[in-house]
Amino acid sequence: MPNDPNDNMLNLRRSAHHRDEERTPVVSPPTLRERAHYRPSRATIAIAVFALFAAAIFYSGAFRSPWRAVFLSNNQVYFGKFWNVPFAPSITLREVYYLQVNQPIQPQDGSAAQSGLAVIKLGSEVHGPEDAMVIPARSILYWENLKNDSAVVRTIEEYKKRQGGK
């Protein structure tokens, strides 16, 4: 029986099995010589250099936010720290302080009323807000970076020392 259909099917299965084995390459681990000749791609080198550069700048303190005075369209001024993100719809001011005018209602002993300004930390109000304020960008007229030796910054730093560095 040379034309037995079972033989033909068996031969087809065997030949298909052999073809799959021929097509599947055997991969061996690289040898030491092959590993010695490995060269990273330019993209890998660029990413590594960028990561090192970014880490160096971050740890150097170059991106620490300075104390800023934020002037709003409703004539209020707040002092604090924030990162300027261009085209952001709002900013989040942290470590918020504001000025309060201390003026007695009636002068005592006929003396002239002396007005004084006090820097107040946000959070001591009746409604108990957190020490952060989200301000819509459209409400900000402008802001100024404050010098470390300005009267406001010195007052804030003294307050923080009295409160234990918070």
Q: How does this model look, in words?
A:
The protein is α+β, with helices and mostly antiparallel strands. The chain has two domains: 30-64; 68-105 and 115-162, SH3 type barrels. The chain is 33% helix and 24% strand. The protein has four helices and six strands. The protein has helices spanning 5-23, 32-36, 42-60, 151-162, and strands spanning 68-72, 77-81, 90-102, 116-121, 132-136, 140-145. Strands 1, 2, 3, 4, 5 and 6 form a six-stranded antiparallel sheet that branches. A hairpin with a 4-residue loop joins strand 1 and strand 2. The longest helix has 19 residues, at 5-23. The termini are far apart. The relative contact order is 0.12.
Could you outline the blueprint of secondary structure elements for this entry?
Layout: H1 5-23, H2 32-36, H3 42-60, E1 68-72, E2 77-81, E3 90-102, E4 116-121, E5 132-136, E6 140-145, H4 151-162
Antiparallel strand pairs: 1-2, 1-6, 2-3, 3-4, 3-5
